[in-house]
Write a structure and sequence with these properties.
The complex is a heterotrimer. Chain A is an alpha/beta fold. Helix content of chain A is 43%, strand content 19%. By secondary structure, chain B is mainly alpha-helical. The chains are: A alpha/beta, B mainly alpha, C mainly alpha.
Chain lengths: 335, 280, 324
């Protein structure tokens, strides 16, 4: 009995001692960049030994946990305005750019075949277009064989930056949406089922026939989901791809003075994908030590992670923007 | 048809329905276990136990960190919960036997056994996570121990009450103080029962997910550090089963299989211990 | 527990006398048992404190009846989640109680002696399976079956009836109230079954034999002797299952669809208090949002506590009345 107690005590102390052996950073937030962050963290661990534990709980979670200072950094696709950052004493910078794509599960329809535009997407999510063979969808897709089945709308159940980007786009192009629902990380959805994270939405769309969801493109690609074309601001139908995302980001002007607050929706270019966005990292201003470690990781990622990002169809930030971010870090004393 | 036959037929039908009910109950058990076994065994490869998670969507990952984390959290919860539970049960069955407030605590304890575990998680978040600004395995263990203590306390109380009073009388007659009577006589007599209570309580918390979601959080990397977020099998099953990746689903089934096996083994062991001890 | 025992212990407790260790040990064990009270009060206090913001803004009645859950406008109401909690729990009980009582009757009255043990253990194993396994199984196995076979069948039969038809409207996805209720129902069968079995076993053999002696059939003995005798115990078991079902999270989180709306059809997605907490807790990005979630937790805690207390009341009454 005494031996067991002694052993247990020794084990507990050993756990505490071993704790300081390795370096660990904890981050949480957006599911949007989870595929690329986890790939980068894996590589970074091999070269530096630092373990960057990133939990994808949604942008709402990223904002909340960094505000509470329970994590070393938060990640969000919904950028915070400078006044919001000041209120909670936070720093913000973008890490990578990606695109939100509608994905569908209709038998016989393959990726890139179905054409949708802002009006149809809006009406589907409002619950006004109820079946796939609706006249409005048929008009855009005269040659496709669309079933008369009811559409199952899949959205997010958690606080999501992907939702923020998607609803910001819908609010911008669809006055009815702006009035009835609005935009944000969590909205009052008119209908549909909610999945947890980009992962959950992808899972539900995979499992449910005649469904439509919106996910970051990496999730569509990694899970072979059927994505659609969208009509952009310039009136052309585009497919989601590295080029169309890059085009969307081409005219973007991120301003360090505004803590890089910027939305990339409804970009004007001919080849632009209409629902694109940057994803951001939030840091607590007073945690100088851990901030420097987080910055070291992203600095490494900016210099070495572009290939991996492109592989997953994320658009790495242009070099000029990376320069601005580095200057931002320096001026805030964390590099 | 005379009334006798009618009653007889009614009896046969009603009893057949109850047999059907038993069959339905057993059917679900067999179906669920079979599913877990079939899908889980396919997922059991060495990589599941010896590798750490791979990046999202990449093959070849494992759940080594989650297995270790689960063991550590459950172990820590047991270290906290079992002593408190046993001591508490001892108080109710011995020093406070028959007293009104012992009854009161006993009833409250029974209620606590079934309290929603997610509320316990939210409670621990407010007192242990937010003030200290980091998630931790210890907080997760503490949340689990809150669920464990009532279970251990009640079974200890029941088992100690089963020990005949005459045993204690004999020890008192020899001049032993009460605490010695308890530790050297009563505990010995109720040892198997208490052990069963402990095993069942471990089985209960080993499968809990909700309290861990906001306390020990989760960790993609291997870690011994209980003072920071740590991976747990149950939280990882939640994450992987809700995700889209086939490799995640496979690993989730494998983890589900291991956890179910472990918990069922504990449950059966506990029951066997009682049966063996009390059959003679 | 006779007066001699009580006197002995009281004397020890009141006069710890020379033995310091005894005093220490009794205090230690006393404190340990007191932790139960500390936890319950602690949880209540913390929940009330955390929800004070939402309590202040929404009040009691308004919060419980408001159907809006809008993080954009920061207006929160508990009605949809309370509705979801009630519907899934009620349906689960509907599925579980007849089965559980049937199982208890089978074990106590019909099964040959050698089967009683194994079936009892099997039912206990059903209770031991972790709820997340139920949830996962529900998502991967049950939901597709519900979606492909059961729900369309229900839609084409009951769905066409005039009064009940509205219950089965909508797209049969498998991710809805019905599937969640089925899983919850399976989960709570063992709780009622084992308590009912214990209650049935308390019926004195004499009374049953008397009934047999005047020619009652097996079923008549069960219906007219055993069931009325063990009423209290069975109620207690049902209440316990209800209390447990209220607090279930993981079993339903996968298949409920997470929609904060009052669903009129069983084939609609919905949300319960527990599922909302699990999904939204770590991400409630405003103080009012988090406070509203804590308010939900408080409502759930109070509801469960009351129902579990009622269950305990019945079980104690049954015990007191019949265990002579």
């Amino acid at each position: 009995m005494k031996k067991i107690a002694a052993f247990a005590l020794a084990a507990v102390l050993a756990m505490g001692a071993a704790a300081h052996a390795e370096e660990m950073l904890n981050g949480a937030g957006a599911t949007f960049p989870y595929p690329v962050y986890s790939a980068w963290a894996n590589e970074y661990n091999k070269v530096s030994g630092v373990k960057l534990n990133y939990q994808s709980i949604g942008s709402g979670g990223g904002i909340k946990q960094i505000t509470e200072r329970t994590v070393d950094f938060g990640a969000t696709d919904k950028p915070l305005k400078p006044e919001e950052l000041a209120k909670d004493n936070l720093l913000q910078f973008p890490a990578v750019i990606g695109g939100v794509v509608p994905v569908v599960n209709i038998s016989g329809i393959k990726s890139g075949e179905l054409k949708l535009d802002s009006e149809t997407v809006c009406k589907i999510y409002l619950g006004e277009i109820k079946t796939w063979n609706d006249a409005m969808i048929k008009k855009l897709n005269p040659t496709l064989n669309l079933p008369g089945s009811e559409i199952t709308v899949v959205h997010r159940s958690d606080g999501s930056g992907t939702t923020a980007i998607f609803t910001d786009y819908l609010s911008g192009v669809c006055p009815a949406w702006k009035e009835k629902v609005g935009s944000g990380t969590s909205v009052s959805w008119p209908s549909g089922i909610g999945g947890k994270g980009n992962e959950g939405v992808a899972n539900y769309v995979q499992q449910t026939s005649n469904s439509i969801g919106y996910v970051e493109f990496a999730y569509a690609k990694q899970n072979n989901l059927t994505y659609t074309q969208l009509k952009n601001h310039a009136g052309a139908f585009v497919e989601p791809s590295f080029e169309s995302f890059e085009d969307a980001a081409a005219t973007a002007s991120f301003d360090p003075k505004k803590d890089f607050y910027l939305w990339l929706n409804d970009a004007p270019g001919n080849k632009s994908w209409p629902i694109a966005g940057a994803t951001f990292i939030l840091l607590a201003k007073e945690k100088k030590d851990s901030n420097m470690k987080v910055v070291k990781f992203y600095d490494w990622a900016f210099k070495n992670g572009d290939g991996k990002a492109k592989e997953l169809i994320y658009v790495p930030l242009p070099n000029s923007l990376k320069g601005k971010i580095e200057a931002y870090w320096k001026s805030n004393g964390i590099k | 048809m005379n009334i006798e036959r009618k009653r007889k037929i009614e009896s046969i039908i009603a009893l057949a329905m109850s047999g059907l009910a038993a069959a339905i109950g057993l059917f679900w058990l067999v179906y669920i276990l079979a599913d877990v076994i079939i899908h889980g065994i396919g997922a059991l490869q060495l990589s599941l136990f010896f590798n750490d998670p791979a990046p999202a969507g990449v093959e070849g990952g494992g759940l080594r960190n989650a297995f270790v984390g689960q063991l550590m959290i459950t172990g820590a919860a047991t270290l906290i919960g079992v002593p408190v539970g046993i001591l508490g049960g001892t108080f109710l069955a011995e020093y406070a036997r028959g007293r009104k407030f012992a009854r009161f605590i006993s009833i409250l304890s029974d209620i606590m056994v079934s309290v929603p575990s997610i509320v316990v998680g939210a409670f621990v978040y407010a007192i242990l996570i937010r003030p200290f600004h980091h998630f931790s395995g210890w907080a997760g263990a503490f949340a689990l121990s809150i669920i464990m203590i009532p279970v251990v306390l009640r079974t200890t109380e029941d088992m100690l009450s089963l020990v005949p009073w005459t045993l204690r009388e004999a020890a008192f007659a020899l001049g032993a103080p009460y605490y010695k009577v308890i530790i050297q006589v009563v505990y010995r007599g109720a040892a198997t029962g208490i052990l069963t209570g402990v095993l069942l309580s471990i089985a209960r918390v080993a499968g809990e997910t909700a309290p861990l979601l906001f306390t020990s959080f989760n960790n993609n990397f291997f870690s011994w550090d209980m003072n920071r977020p740590i991976a747990s099998l149950t939280a990882t099953i939640f994450q992987y089963a809700m995700g889209p990746y086939k490799s995640w689903h496979t690993q989730a089934w494998g983890a589900a299989f291991v956890i179910t096996l472990f918990i069922l083994a504990l449950t059966i062991m506990g029951r066997l211990a009682i049966w063996w001890r009390y059959k003679r | 527990m006779n007066t001699q025992q009580t006197r002995k212990i009281r004397s020890l407790a009141i006069f710890p006398r020379k033995n310091v260790v005894d005093l220490l040990f009794s205090s230690l064990t006393g404190v340990a048992s007191f932790t139960i009270i500390i936890f319950i009060i602690g949880i209540l206090v913390v929940l009330v404190m955390e929800s004070s913001l939402a309590l202040g803004k929404f009040g009691l009645v308004n919060f419980l009846t408001s159907t809006t859950w809008n993080p954009v406008t920061q207006i929160f109401g508990a009605a949809p989640t309370i509705y979801g909690t009630f519907v899934t729990t009620a349906l689960a009980l509907l599925f579980a109680i007849p089965t559980a009582i049937g199982i208890a009757i089978f074990i106590t009255e019909i099964a040959p002696n050698f089967l009683k043990g194994p079936i009892g253990i099997a039912i206990e194993l059903l209770a031991a399976i972790p709820s997340i396994i139920y949830g996962m199984w529900g998502l991967f196995t049950l939901a597709p079956i519900m979606s492909k076979y059961v729900e369309p069948a229900l839609q084409s039969t009951v769905g066409k009836l005039p009064f009940l038809g509205f219950l089965f409207k909508g797209n049969p996805l498998g991710i809805d109230l019905l599937t969640a209720s089925v899983i919850l129902g399976i989960m709570i069968i063992p709780f009622t079954a084992s308590i009912a079995r214990d209650a049935f076993n308390l019926t004195p053999a004499v009374i049953k034999e008397s009934a047999y002696a005047i020619g009652a059939t097996r079923w008549e003995v069960v219906k007219n002797v055993v069931l009325p005798y063990s009423k209290l115990g069975v109620f207690g078991g049902v209440a316990l299952s209800l209390g447990r079902a209220l607090g279930e999270t993981m079993a339903v989180a996968f298949v409920l669809g997470n929609n904060h709306k009052i669903a009129t059809s069983l084939l609609d997605a919905a949300s319960t208090i527990t599922v909302s907490l699990a999904n939204e807790f770590t991400e409630a990005d405003s103080d009012m949002y988090l406070s509203s979630l804590y308010y939900l937790a408080l409502v759930l805690f109070v509801m469960s506590f009351i129902i579990l207390a009622i269950s305990k009341f019945f079980l104690l009454k049954a015990e007191r009345r019949y265990s002579r």
